[in-house]
Amino acid sequence: MKQAACLLLLALAPLEGHHSFAAEFDVNQPVELRGTVTALDWINPHCWIHLEVKDAGGEITRWVIEAGSPNALLRLGVQKSALPAGTEVVVAGFRAKDGSHRVSGRWILLAGGRKLFLGGSAPGSSGGKPGV
User: The whole model's pTM is what?
Assistant: First the structure.
């Protein structure tokens, strides 16, 4: 009886739908951004890297980069401590279809030349590692 009650509760719980890459991001709009990390949200189902990008005229645009889950990043060797606020980076990924300053990240390049794959839904974001 308890099992049936638990199953009923699970069936009634609201389920949050998960998007696919193609639903929100455009593979035909690759971007490469050079900027400064302002924050990192290390949360499920996706980590978010907040970036300030300065153009040639000095104007700053704020971008947010979608990465994989904390677990996916850890499996790729990325730790939360790798991206503290103030870190200068280059990020490659694909822009949101709605034209917002949102990107599904493929990889991030640190100043010392270390490339970190972002383990999300973007093509090439797992660095060729299966299962991520």
Answer: 0.80
